[in-house]
Amino acid sequence: xxxxxxxxxxxxxxxxxxxxxxxxxxxxxxxxxxxxxxxxxxxxxxxxxxxxxxxxxxxxxxxxxxxxxxxxxxxxxxxxxxxxxxxxxxxxxxxxxxxxxxxxxxxxxxxxxxxxxxxxxxxxxxxxxxxxxxxxxxxxxxxxxxxxxxxxxxxxxxxxxxxxxxxxxxxxxxxxxxxxxxxxxxxxxxxxxxxxxxxxxxxxxxxxxxxxxxxxxxxxxxxxxxxxxxxxxxxxxxxxxxxxxxxxxxxxxxxxxxxxxxxxxxxxxxxxxxxxxxxxxxxxxxxxxxxxxxxxxxxxxxxxxxxxxxxxxxxxxxxxxxxxxxxxxxxxxxxxxx
Amino acid sequence: xxxxxxxxxxxxxxxxxxxxxxxxxxxxxxxxxxxxxxxxxxxxxxxxxxxxxxxxxxxxxxxxxxxxxxxxxxxxxxxxxxxxxxxxxxxxxxxxxxxxxxxxxxxxxxxxxxxxxxxxxxxxxxxxxxxxxxxxxxxxxxxxxxxxxxxxxxxxxxxxxxxxxxxxxxxxxxxxxxxxxxxxxxxxxxxxxxxxxxxxxxxxxxxxxxxxxxxxxxxxxxxxxxxxxxxxxxxxxxxxxxxxxxxxxxxxxxxxxxxxxxxxxxxxxxxxxxxxxxxxxxxxxxxxxxxxxxxxxxxxxxxxxxxxxxxxxxxxxxxxxxxxxxxxxxxxxxxxxxxxxxxxxxxxxxxxxxxxxxxxxxxxxxxxxxxxxxxxxxxxxxxxxxxxxxxxxxxxxxxxxxxxxxxxxxxxxxxxxxxxxxxxxxxxxxxxxxxxxxxxxxxxxxxxxxxxxxxxxxxxxxxxxxxxxxxxxxxxxxxxxxxxxxxxxx
Lengths: 338, 490
What we know:
The complex is a heterodimer. By secondary structure, chain A is α/β, with parallel strands linked by helices. Chain A has 13 helices and 16 strands. In chain A, the strands form four sheets. Chain A has a seven-stranded mixed β-sheet with strand order 5-4-6-7-9-8-14, with helices on both faces. Chain A has a five-stranded mixed β-sheet with strand order 11-13-12-15-16, with helices on both faces. In chain A, helix 3 packs parallel to helix 4 and helix 10 packs across helix 11. Chain B is an alpha/beta fold. Chain B folds into three domains: 1-87, no CATH class; 125-449, 3-Layer(aba) Sandwich (Rossmann fold); 452-483. Chain B contains twelve helices and nine strands. In chain B, the strands form two sheets. In chain B, strands 1-8-9-5-4-2-3 form a seven-stranded parallel β-sheet, with helices on both faces. In chain B, strands 6-7 form a two-stranded antiparallel ribbon. In chain B, a hairpin with a 2-residue loop joins strand 6 (315-316) and strand 7 (319-320). In chain B, helix 2 crosses helix 4 (207-213) and helix 3 (184-192) packs across helix 8. Mean pLDDT of chain B is 87; it is low at 1-80. At the A-B interface, helix 3, helix 4 and helix 5 of A face helix 6 and helix 7 of B.
């Protein structure tokens, strides 16, 4: 196919001219060059989307490139695979990650395996699936799920989760341009809450590269998405008690950056993983097992996991379900005092 | 102003209703216009005014129990407590006017009547009789002898290849095979009606289409033997062919997943203004999958130039169509999606060719999807893993095999035109057999793909974890080489 010369770039400067602070509204503009094959589609994407992530895109780039689809997740992803197989960039939105499951077969059996099974004759690397995930305070069972672990079990996919607006822009651009199908989980909690100065212009952040966002020497904490803000608060509290925490944002869960976590745990001797998803079979289990294999003799205490409970995501019980700052702080202290 | 704007918006929506320009009967009473309110009507023709609100509202209405509405478009919340003007009713009959957004062309009825579960009969298009003679009144498609002979030769080669590969599997030369006996015309003739630029998303029984495109016997053999020349690098079971140069997307086992891919591909072709369409093949069983429904609906809404070719061969492994769906066939399903369709005698190569050619032209020039139900019969077992004598009668099978062979039917037509004879047939069969056996011998002698092909193409480039795993596997093999297949080079 002819090389795709399309370019995506965040649109926040256009939309937020008046104010310097940019919210994580994830306005993604598509700059169309002479020949471009990029599409953004999903339920309600046309008017801007239920989280306003695609506001204005259809007006700027036309309804043939930015459009609503029928209410059918398996169709959305299947259609996206077809577009990507023809060499296009297809950015498919699944309205809530809770609703991604009808598309599970298309994602796991088709998208993830498209290149491998064809002997690299074909691929759908141009496919990126964006979907809001995670707790929002009142979402309950079907507007709060964190299904990242299911997808981390699928060779051929990439799973990327940003923690902030600046990270989201760079990671999403990288995900869209990455020649592999990527699932980009956007923490919906941060859509309104997270406010940051985001650099204008085009930049990407590397996939499969974790980031140490706080240096420390006593214990390594690993997380992703909205949970990092909670973990950071716990780190601040812990430092008041003389515990120095190193905090790592994994950013890409599949394939994940084992080396950086291993290096950190070799330094600190302790590991704590925290995620909103239920603890059993959660991605924290993979990190715990891998690091235990690699750093067994260095570990001073068992790997701690502070996660959601093994229940469906409840409404009034959300504050009890969530891996809160205090639960994390308690686990840090238990680990340090083991 | 807000009221006028709202009224204007509602009225413009009403204008779009096709029922709107309906009967205008007797004049009803003149509007009562409150002097304190602006005149809502001056810029609009009176015939377009359908709104009549004859109740007052409080500034913050609690409910609408005391009102009567004529139109659903005026919002409930009105910010005035004054009586609203009673706007003229031009006498458009209540029963004609249906303006719900969900339907376009229908009318009210006061008859309590259900829509029948039986659809309108869909005729089955054919042009040749079972004896290969033009049916009375049939208009045969334009087909030169060269094309007709190429179709026939493909069908024969396909039959011979199927036979020999089936036997090869039985002999343990490779693990699996699926023949398309009984469906040769459906597959080859449909492929012949396409252009090489049309992208094919097949199910698994359409090797005839790939053969038509030019995939040669050697390439088929390589894939079935999973050797180092297999384009799929030995990763998939036999018959999971793919070929980029032939615009035939690699087969995957899950049923009906390819349908929505074809829709996405078709949309891409439309946007790129290509003179090409996407084509997807699938069986009767696939029409039960959610992906079928998803793809059909998407194709219609996106106005994608895609051909949905359903090989309705009556069986999904052991499941007959009576256990598969309750509609009368597959072609009738398209109407529910707002899509055009046709039902064709799939054992009549000329009819299949004609229908697909016509559908393709419509799909591209009108940017629309078309469902083509190709009725045929699965003479073969489902696959080499199946024994269909366990679930269907020998009489049924032998009837279709002996009396309803689509290749023989087409041959009769060729012979009737003086383009073919028995001797040529014998020569072709013999020639094909020799070529296929040579291809098989060659494929069998080749090594399998190297071990490194286990780890590549999971992603565009090999990630660290897979590099580690490759080292780990190589160490394991080095310790016990006799426990691993020796025909896979390390």
